[in-house]
Amino acid sequence: MFAHMMYIDKEKNLDIKVKPGDVLIVFFVAVSAILMLSFFHRVTGTENASTAIIEVNGKVIDKIQLGRGLKRKDLKVKGFIGTSVVRVEGKKIKMLSSTCRDKISIRMGWAAQPGSSIICMPNRVVIRLKRSSKAKRIDAITE
């Protein structure tokens, strides 16, 4: 059925020559693709600049600016039934130990994305990650 499309006429000279206009088109497409990628990288805030907010029983105990240069640090947080240990390292945070029975907050692992949280209900310790005010984010673009 499509055999006539597959046929190549050997008598025709199919010399493909690259013209200066072709090079310009490829160059502009490549540059525009790079510019679009850098724009989306900047808009989406892939640097994940965030602040960890540690609360006990609804009261803010500490605010920690997370970032690349932040070295490993363990914080003791006195909760409702005992002391929890929170580890901060670079752009991420986790519950290292807690006095609660089920240890669910410990098994949650590292939190690194703004909007995520670690919650220890029995000890009433909540760790929330919030996008820093320094990190710009666009919700939508309209025309």
Structure, explained:
The protein is an alpha+beta fold and 143 residues long. The protein folds into two domains: 6-44; 50-131, N-utilization substance G protein NusG, insert domain (mini-chromosome maintenance (MCM) complex, domain 2), CATH 2.60.320.10. It has helices spanning 3-6, 20-44, 104-107, and strands at 50-56, 59-66, 73-78, 83-89, 92-97, 117-120, 125-131. The strands form two sheets. The protein has a four-stranded antiparallel β-sheet with strand order 2-1-7-6, with no helix packed on it. Strands 3-4-5 form a three-stranded antiparallel β-sheet. Strand 4 and strand 5 (92-97) form a beta hairpin. The longest helix has 25 residues, at 20-44. 16% of the residues are buried. The mean pLDDT is 82.
How many angstroms does the end-to-end distance come to?
Answer: 47 Å
Instruction: Quote the beta fraction.
Output: 25-35%
Spatial extent as radius of gyration: 27 Å
Runs with pLDDT <50, length 5+? Answer: none
What's the number of structural domains? 2
Which homologous superfamily in CATH is the superfamily of the largest domain?
A: N-utilization substance G protein NusG, insert domain
CA-based shape: elongated
The CATH topology assignment of the largest domain is mini-chromosome maintenance (MCM) complex, domain 2
The main pleated sheet reads as: 4 strands, antiparallel
Which CATH architecture of the largest domain is right?
Sandwich
- The class by helix and strand makeup works out as alpha+beta
Name the average pLDDT. Answer: 82
Helix content: 10-25%
